[in-house]
Amino acid sequence: MKTDKNKKLKVGVYGITGCSGCQLSIIFNEEEILDLLSLIDLKAFPFIKELNIDEEFDCIILEGLVANKGDLEILRKLRRNSKMLVSLGACACTGCVPAYRHFTLKENYEHLLYKKQEELQDVEPSPHDEHVKVDYYIPGCPPDKKEILRFIKGSVRGVLPRPHQNPVCIECRRNGNACLLDEGKPCLGPITTGGCNAVCINGGFECWGCRGPTKDMNLDLMIKMLRDRGFDDRFIQDRMRTFVGLKLPMLERVMQGPKSKVLQTRFDGEKKFYE
Amino acid sequence: MSKTITLNHITKIEGHAKLNLKIDKGKITTCELSATEGARYFEGIVKGRKYYAAHEMTSRICGICSCAHVVAALTAVEDALGLTISEQSCRLRVLLTLAERIRSHATHLYFLALPDYLGYESALSMAPEYKPQLQAALRLMKMGNGIVKLLGGRDLHPVSAGVGGWLKLPKQEEMEETGKELLKVKKDAIATVKLFAGLKQPEFESDAEWFSLVDPNEYAVLKGKFASGKSSFEKHEYRKFIEEYHQAYSTSNFVVKEDRRYFVSALARLNNNHRQLSRDAQKALKETGLKPPSKNPYHNNLAQAIELIHCIDHAMEICKREIKQEEMPEITPRAGRGVGAIEVPRGTLWHEYTLDEKGIITDANIITPTAQNLFAMQEDIRKRMPSLLKKKKQEIVLDMEKLIRNYDPCFSCAAHFLEVKWL
Asked: Among A112, A122, A235, whose Cβ lies nearest the Cβ of B419?
């Protein structure tokens, strides 16, 4: 990406609706954060900077999901102004927990809807790539802070780290963890993209799938494994949709069967995610 | 002469907010501070989910205080289930909360607040001249993050704390090692107090009352009554004394107590509980000359710095205790309502859940510190403005930003969306 050796990469870090956790994950690289400036030309980072230069960027790293019209405007503007757009974190990549609203009953949140809808300017909670082209994804809730660093260092050299493809199980096994599925717990490690070093399972907690499904996941088998362990379809759907529901549009179809009781949502079948 | 000041994107705060000020003939006609974040409807989307999903989902309200949301949600859910956790489980939750406070205060003080006072646009641009100070900040942040990771499994959105206890316990030697590390960074906390005590703060008094938890046994963290100098309330009664409503220009709610505004924060805690601070924190407080109670919101930074010392001392005490292996309790779902009120970096955080007999969440309510402080912040700006009118616009803006940042607002939290009630 970089052509002139003396010219530093112009980077902007922004956030739209989210929890600021992904931007914090950048700062929480306590040992490296101060040296970051020698690597890149940090043009904008409103979370920690007063002066934010709004111009042509080589790379925009953007946290958060699109939840109102303001978010959408910012996303489109940043996309126009940057050669590269990086979606940082689960909200940006998959919609994360806020996008679970698509899969809950409307009556659960209807009463929370703001009366003056036109002022709130709500839009359906959605990840970046439902609206614009995304060049690189750093998934996870939160994203691995070292992965962010590797990306920045890599993009300075012009070599982007290869996205992870293996499921969480590979790293989990390497860490010597006992398999939570063997213990009867509803772990989504087999269908979830790794790169997190199986951090949740290391901490005793089952994987909820925050980094998104692997490209070649076997969803049928995963569903069967969970059903075999006594989890009902409602549970399986809720769990799978908590972080990445929008990226599993086929879930309902796969689960359809004479025995399954499926929660009807607005998605019935495949949905196209890319423009 | 009329003047309009609009800060569309207030920088160096958590989340997104804007300030809209209109001044006509020396009078403030409009003063609106509002979150510009999109609504995320957390209370709506946890409905229909089982009790064990509450902390996992609501943790995502906020990155910097994710431990706070986890602990508050767990406390509320256990309250609803009638579940009592072990003394050790509670102690480790206190440690998790304190560790988060250490990293949050250090991040806020050095990365968000300090540049204003030293005349820099950001902490990064301070680096050439203030490297030792920034390194101290980063050591404190690393310390807090290290403990959160040790206990919670990772830096943000911890996973090891579960309903009823801990899915995984730290090892004894890891706790001992942590205790040693804490002792090493204590000098950084003491230096932070000195640094912030030396900053010039404007004379100003807020009209808002301060509130925090008050616990007779210790500098309140997870237990106690919600109190100010004047009044005191039980947490289960909070709906009787906290009211929520919605402003047309914002996605956040303001919370008013008996038709009065109040603030929650490190300063509110210091005002109520300073006699329970650790010895070294009390000593540091005395040296600063700050005499609680203070109604000057500009003192919140100093209060945070003093809390750093106290949190380190309290955390060291916890690290000395023995870790016993414990089993997680068997949980039988039951119908009930539970409230969690805990002290988190920015003040008191409230979570409430109602469960049905299957353990499904049928109602949820969350009130964050920033949502409670918004009204006080806005009215402080209104009160402070007249004394600034003769200054240049740029100086007014800086002063306003300083005031807002002193409250350490988190608009991600405030804009999580609460129940709407028009007054």
From this structure: A112
Cβ atoms within 10 Å, residue B327? 8
Q: Would the CB atoms of B167 and A24 count as touching at under 8 Å?
A: no
DSSP label at residue B367: E
Q: How far apart are CA A4 and CA B422, in angstroms?
A: 58
Q: Which of B47, B155, B166 sits opposite A108 (nearest CB)?
A: B47
- For A35, how many CA atoms within 13 A lie in the half-sphere containing its CB? 7
Contact check, Cβ <8 Å, B15/A50 = no
- A120-153 in b/e form (b: 16+ CB < 10 A) is bbbbebbbbbbbbebebbbbbbbbbbebbbebbe
Other Cβ atoms closer than 10 A to B162: 19
Question: pLDDT of chain A along its 275 residues, tens only?
Answer: 444 556 899 999 999 999 999 999 999 999 999 888 789 999 999 999 988 987 899 999 999 999 988 899 999 999 999 999 999 999 999 999 999 999 988 777 766 665 444 455 778 899 999 999 999 999 999 999 999 999 999 999 999 999 999 999 999 999 999 999 999 999 999 999 999 999 999 999 999 999 999 998 999 999 999 999 999 999 999 999 999 999 998 888 888 754 544 444 333 333 332 22
> What does DSSP assign to residue A67?
E
Residue B109: its H or E element: none
Separation of alpha carbons A116 and B306, rounded Å = 43
B348 contacts B226 by C-beta, under 8 angstroms = yes
Supply A55's token pair. Answer: 């111009």
According to CATH, what is the number of the domain B42-422? 1.10.645.10
User: In this complex, which of A34, A48, A101 lies closest to B12 when CB atoms are compared?
Assistant: A48
Tokens coding B4: 């309009």
Which residues in chain B have Cβ-Cβ distances shorter than 8 Å to A33? Answer: 124, 138
Interface probe with B: pick from A108, A201, A243, most Cβ of B within 10 Å = A108
CA B58 – CA A100 distance, rounded (Å): 12
Look up the pTM and report it.
Answer: 0.93
Q: Spell out which residues of chain A touch residue B64, defining contact as CB-CB under 8 Å.
A: 20-21, 24
CA distance B113 to chain A (A): 10
CB–CB contact A101 B157 (8 Å): no
DSSP 8-state symbol, B110 = I
Nearest residue of B to residue A69, measured between CA atoms: B38
Size of interface A-B (CB pairs under 8 A): 206
Residues of A in contact with B158 (CB under 8 A): 203
Q: Where do the structural domains in chain B lie, given as residue ranges?
A: 42-422
* Per-residue pLDDT tens digits for B78-99: 999 999 999 999 999 999 999 9
**Element of type H or E holding A128:** none
Contacting residues of A for B67, CB less than 8 Å apart: none
B interface test, pick of A11, A17, A19, A196 with most B CB neighbours within 10 Å:
A19
Name residue B355's amino acid: L
- If you measure CA to CA, which chain B residue comes closest to A96? B60
Predicted confidence (pLDDT) per residue in B114-145, tens digit: 999 999 999 999 999 999 999 999 999 999 99
Interchain CB distance below 8 Å, A112 and B15: no
CA distance B140 to B157: 19
Q: How many residues does chain B have?
A: 423
* Angle between the N-to-C axes of helices B300-320 and B131-152, in degrees from 0 to 180, rounded to the nearest 10: 50
